[in-house]
Amino acid sequence: MRTRPLTIYPATPARWDDLASVFGHRGGPARCWCQYFIDPEWSFDASEANRAALLCQVVGQHPAPGLIAYLDEEPAGWVEVGPRERYPNARLPLGDPATWAITCFVVRPVARHTGIATEMLEAAVDHAERNAASRLLARPVDTDGGRLPGGDLYTGVLSTFLSHGFREVHRRGHRVVVELALPRD
Asked: What is the residue-wise DSSP string for the chain?
């Protein structure tokens, strides 16, 4: 059980350096910068171009393209969430413009196993609701109760989504499409 305080904020230009520290300088996040689902020309080897693309999204998109989690006021995690149309490579069903998607989670190694991914999911749902989304989609991995390498968990874990009211709509191997209907005013 985590006892250290967690806060979560939208990614804004003023928080760019914090977001960059979450992605770090090595491993998958440092090369991808959450561009895989966005860019049809995506390349894992184009880390600087991917970084620049995410910076442009943080600076130029409203609503914010994701949320940054802070553990003890230190940047600790990221969740990418936004309108489904932003993610042509997401392998998620298309919907009306009010359909949103959660595509990626990044949690710094020092913050793993603290439960922040669960709280980032809750914050992503709230962010989508505040921005008039009607439905939220994701494609988490079913761990079948076992453990998978951290690099396989970047889309989230199925059990976390199911415990937050998402329902399974399609399954292909360990990857599962889930959805959550959001209340409309």
From this structure: ---S-EEEEE--GGGHHHHHHHH-SSHHHHHHTT-TTT-TT--TT-HHHHHHHHHHHHHH-SS-SEEEEEETTEEEEEEEEEEGGG-TTS------TTEEEEEEEEE-GGGTTSSHHHHHHHHHHHHHHHTT-SEEEE--B--TTS---GGG-TT-BHHHHHHTT-EEEEEETTEEEEEEEPP--
Identify the CA nearest to 58 among candidates 123, 14, 103, 25.
Answer: 14
Encode pLDDT of 65-109 as tens digits: 999 999 999 999 999 999 999 999 998 988 788 999 999 999 988
CATH code given to domain 6-181 = 3.40.630.30
Q: Is the pLDDT of residue 1 over 80?
A: no
Q: Distance (Å, rounded) from C-alpha 179 to C-alpha 168? A: 7
